[in-house]
Amino acid sequence: MGHLDGRIALITGAGRGIGEAVARYFAAEGARVVVNDLGVDIDGTGADASVAETVAASIRADGGAAIANTDDVADWDGARRAVASAVDGFGDLHVVVNNAATERNLGLVDMTEADFDSVVGVSLKGTFAVSHWAARFWRERFEAGERVDRSLVNTASGSGLLNPLPTQTNYAAAKAGVAAMTLIHALELGRYGVRVNCSSPSMVRTRLTENVAGMPQPRAEGFDPTAPVTSAPLVAYLATAECGLTGQVLSMRGSTVLVNRNWSKGPHLSKGEELWTVDELAAALPDLSPDDPFQTLAAALDGALGSRLGEEGRAGVRRMVDAALDAAAAGRG
Hints:
Layout: E1 8-12, H1 17-28, E2 32-36, H2 50-61, E3 65-69, H3 76-90, E4 95-97, H4 113-143, E5 150-155, H5 158-161, H6 169-189, E6 194-201, H7 232-239, E7 249-253, E8 256-259, H8 278-284, H9 293-305, H10 313-332
Parallel strand pairs: 1-2, 1-4, 2-3, 4-5, 5-6, 6-7
Antiparallel strand pairs: 7-8
């Protein structure tokens, strides 16, 4: 008996990387899976219908149940069709894993409107659109008298929650928005028996991250903490009918699971019912010891990649950021 026996799941962006690993893991645990993937390049261009079908066919060859879907989740009607494909193909829908994402990494001064809209359209609008149509179906079934556990599992990222990275205005903003939507939708959809949670993988080796400096190569033997499958057990647990969690944003790195608690309140100043002056704030705010974003980034990268940026100070981190921005702009041509 698998943990997902009888569950029907739609997984977006399931043709490669984390989505593929989750789709295969779900099928091995007994779920019937819709493998949604448009088959685009990393930047969202192009399309290849064989990407989704290859994964679905492989799952079927291994004895699982899977169908392919190539609808664009960033398209309103495409998101509706993706949800309908699960209902039409398997008769119901219990789980949605919103995983589809693209990247166009550029600095603010080089990023175009199209660069911003494309990435936000897939990660943020795509999550919203698929969730909307799934929720509409689930509300309909609930009002018809069904009392079945339903689960939405969104996908955020460390870039957006813990360490927003230079060149990722679009991606980080989208992923932070996904985390916020998770909390809102958990509150809104509870009335229909729907739980909403979010997985936030970090330092996972996919085609979006394989060229990141310091990303380890795959391990031939033993546990590989950067393999895409490391995200799958958490997503599977959140998808089980027995899971009671909702409204949680959980970071996953290797075998470490971390509970995120939104933006947390730090030290504060108050004048009671008096209005501050600019001079008073200029004198008082430095005493609160606000975080330096350069040092915060250095600490995050040192921990993830084993670098020693923290020892180089603010100037060293600025040089690294400037070099990354220049390289991204040069790559655009």
